[in-house]
Amino acid sequence: MAAMQRAPNAPSRVGRISTLTLGYLFLYIPILTLVVFSFNDSSMMTSWTGFSLRWYVALMNDQALLRAASLSLQVAFMTATAAAALGTWAGYIVARKPMFKGFGLYVGLLTAPLVIPEVVLGISLLLLFVEMGSVFGWPGERGLLTIWVGHTTLCLAFVTIIVQSRIRDLDRAYEEAALDLGAKPLHVFFTITLPLIAPAIISGWLLAFTLSLDDVVIASFLSGPGSTLLSPEIFSRVRLGLKPEVNALATIFVVIVGVFVVVVNRLQRKQETMGP
Amino acid sequence: MSDALGSLTSFGADADDCLRMVDLTKIYGDTVAVQSVNLSIKRGEIFALLGSSGCGKSTLLRMLAGFETVTSGQIFLEGEDITQLPPYKRPINMMFQSYALFPHMTVEANVAFGLKQEGVVQPEIHERVFEALELVQMSPYARRKPHQLSGGQQQRVALARSLVKRPKLLLLDEPMSALDKQIRRNTQIELVRIIEQLGVTCFMVTHDQEEAMTMANRLGVMTEGQIKQVGTPQDVYAFPNSRFVAGFIGSTNLFSGTITIDESDHIVIESDALTRPLFVSHGVSEPLGMEISVSLRPERLQVLRHQPDGDFNWAHGMVSHMAWMGSYALYQIRLDSGKTVEASVPSLLLTQAEPPGIDDEVYVSWHHEAVTVLTS
Amino acid sequence: MIGSFFSRLKQSGFWVIAPPYAWLVLFLLVPFLLVLKISVADLNFGIPPYTSLVDLSDNVLTFTVHLRGYALLFSDSLYLMTYLSSIKMAAITTVCCILIGYPMAYYIARTEGSLRHLLLLAVILPFWTSLLLRVYAWVGILRNDGLLNNFLIWMGLIDTPLEIYRTDLAVYIGLVYAYLPFFILPLYANLVKLDARLLDAAYDLGASPVRAFLAVTLPLSLPGVVAGAMLVFIPTVGEYVIPEMLGGADTLMMGRVMWSEFFTNADWPMASAVTVIMVLILLVPLVVLQMNQKRSFLSETKGGQ
Fold first, then answer.
1. pLDDT, tens digit, for every residue of C212-222?
2. What residues does B220 pair with on adjacent strands?
3. Quick one: which of A109, A227, B174, C66 could link to C24 by a disulfide (CB 3.0–4.6 Å)?
4. How many domains are there within chain C?
5. Do residue B100 and residue A181 have CB atoms under 8 angstroms apart?
């Protein structure tokens, strides 16, 4: 038996290192292959023929893809903002308001998009818009607006969970102290609660942004003529085979997301030092 | 005596009253947290509500602040019914147990917050904020954030924040609980000094009886939603009205016995725990033959080596334990009847003669005025 | 009268609760009710491409409920097999996620200090990167001429390429890959709240590490495991993108069926019927998840007070 000085209840080092290494390899190897082969001269992943930036160049010249990317970014931005606002609102209610009639249904509806398969959400929203169109005459046709509604509904659930958890950890005393000092409830929310939960809201915003950008199913169901988004575009292309420009796109993605996540994490850690 | 004092829990309206609670009750589902509390606090008074956790004192405090709705009853502040008013409309300010200083604001901004809500203009805000900070000696720290301050410093800022609006009533929620024991005593005295300097009426809740006795003009003892006794610290300590209060405030020796002689100016009680009867130098309303409880404070018991004179108010036993507490010695003496009593003897007395040690035979004796009859 | 009605509304906090609630009802509840309604409609030409439930003509009010869709669902064995296949694949995926994810979550939760934050970040980071692109990466790895086969051939371990791409196996790899973080995160949140002193007490009483794990850690982590498992199982049943990209023509999954009913066949009533049945199937795990969440929510708030 190895004469290692360690506490009896510390998990075994061998087990820990091997499990974590394998696990993280599994998670990261695909991403690494994308990045590496985005610089490959050959379009096949069979061999490395040389370092090249040609796929990045091809990406820059791909009008359809760039247009789809621009639309996606717009929709993602609007979605993230709407989801952050509604999600914060809903999260506040779940965390602070006591049980009211219909609370069960409320929570159920809030958490449903988290688990229900996206195709269900896609189909039901499409049916809603079609029915609304035939009864009210609006929306006339589907497009960015309808996609935005779909994405917001999906992402709302994620933001709510994040914000709600943060608010529950927030000491009620802060809000009560503000009330005690004469501030009305709405004012308390904006001057005290909001600043203290800001990092959680930002996390939620970023998550919603990512989810919207990444979505294939809902964007496909709810899109109309001329409103093809990035992920559906990528999806329809890769169904037919490998496309190295996609590798280039993926690499850019990974870098941007990596930076964002680190930034958000720094913000969260700084918040922790200020106290709950 | 205890009956007369019992009626000191004031009921009627008084021009001097700052705060008056009438039949204040709070019920959660099946639990009665606060049961029909009637209490008046005079203007400029510091009142402490003393009780262990779960007795309802925090609930009562929160009802006064406006954070809990009142199930029934009323709260009057200087004659005005504030029962239905939300917290931000009450001229009451509270210092929270955790201080609740806003972490994202500086000390100055924290103290200024309440004034901003009132619509006070800038030059006056600045003036009053620094006036308050001066009072608590925290002016140099105006630009700091709460997490950069120590516990004691945070408390001062919290105090300044709750006083700057010149409230009619100041509420304190366990003010010393977050501080280290060493600095508590000095902080208590300083807190009282500041409050009395401003003449603010103050209502505090605490579970620490030393805190209540040190800081309050009057105190009340609460348990299970009811206030059992109200009075000055000296009165409540010396004349507890019940077994509960007697045991809660300070330590005591409790005896139960039967009244064997009942006269208008004295009674005699026979108890199984004592070989000699107790003589009490006043009459009581309880009749002959009635079971009754008495309380004897440890510091009123004399520990003697020789049998005292008289037939009453002494007992014989053996020292089972002795603890040297610095300024006094705490004796545990097993009486002949088997009951153990506590006696505390000042060190001064012990230096004058050879003090009794463990297993020594001793006599405990007390003056007839030291016996407190308990009504419940 | 009206004034007091509004002031009572205001006091109950109605206006605070209403707006998000209204959004949810309008864009989640109502659509699903619509799906129910259309699942009992029939194909129609024109817009909308389904018949109406209620018809009023010649002073006759008719309710027409077409059961064609449901009849087809129950009679055509293909649908039945697809449902079963979806559940099977979701179940196997969930088990794999537990087997891989539990040790990972456990070791991360037991790591000290800033390294733990780093490890957690490393689990979350892929989650934020586009899922689509990461699944696409697997295509490149698993193809007959892809990385994995090239590597194995180069190592001399095999002679001919392994046929993984466009089979069920590829779908499993893709599903586990995609949903692993969904399992690790809730379990981690549960494990990290575990009081290490409970384990100390167990050791103190003479338990071996294995026994302590089985008797203390495992039972206490069960809510986390259930939460994570449901978070993997339920969405996987209806997955579309991953089976479509990695699976073969015979990989039967509900998500693909719904998509094709809708886009390829343009049979909206059929697609609706399929959806309704799928949601009904998912009701059981959904309820399990809700109860699990409620239980942990209640215990957390009690502990907080």
1. 788 888 888 88
2. B49, B230
3. A109
4. 1
5. no
